[in-house]
Amino acid sequence: MLDYDKEAARYDATRGGDGRADAAAAAIVSLLPEGLLRNGTGRIVDLACGTGIVTVRLTGPGDPDRTGGLDGTGGRASVLGIDRSPGMAAVAARRLPGRITVGDATRIPLAPGSADAVTIVWLLHLLSTADSERVIAEAARVLRPGGVLITTVDKNDAAYRTGDDIARLVWPVRAAAAAAADQTDAADRVIAIARASGLEPAAEATFTGIGQGMSPRERRQQLRDRRPGWTVELPRDRIERLHTALAALPDQDRPRPDPVYKLLSARKTVSHD
Fold first, then answer.
1. How many domains does the chain have?
2. Given 1, 65, 67, 265, which is the most exposed site by the fewest CB atoms within 10 A?
3. What is the radius of gyration, based on Cα positions, of the chain?
């Protein structure tokens, strides 16, 4: 897995920067409970907040309190970011002083029922089967009745569902590899775990990974480096055949279309007892 402490200083510049963050935040906001940002009295918890480039965009107009605590008593604190990487959290803290903490998403440092929304962007696909289940269960624990979990799903498929010439070559190989392995952020799986945790699917949204479209040459280098992770188990001869096919494509340095990512929201059921 990527060393996020070492990557923190250049992470935003290599992941689409402000453009991608604007798109992601707009999609998240479209799934938040109505009025949560406008009235400024709710709490959004951004798990695996990274550099905070998206987190800060969720504060809403006139964010009233940038010093609220993480124990559920921080008054009108509207956004709290949590990340397990001290390096990433340090960058995020410069964007949101006093609103970022180092913590593990499998053990969220918040009281039960203390959040109106929990957001998780590009985390579940990095986790083991057991840890992804724990993260969803923890999100459900800290949500108030009626609160929502918002998470990306099917992240690693997005780059290969763009319909271009690279995607047509890579997708069949990617699909076969995914079928043979657990895809911990698969939409159907996330929905099933959410329901088991007392959350009901509510809505969907998408956003474009601006600046993340890749050229054939960049894809070839990824294969050489055995990135992303699904390529690790591929036989060498399969890698070489795919590399050769990519090398035959025209416009080797022209980026292809940006991927489109999917967000799902699930609402914590309200007890009528």
1. 1
2. 1
3. 19
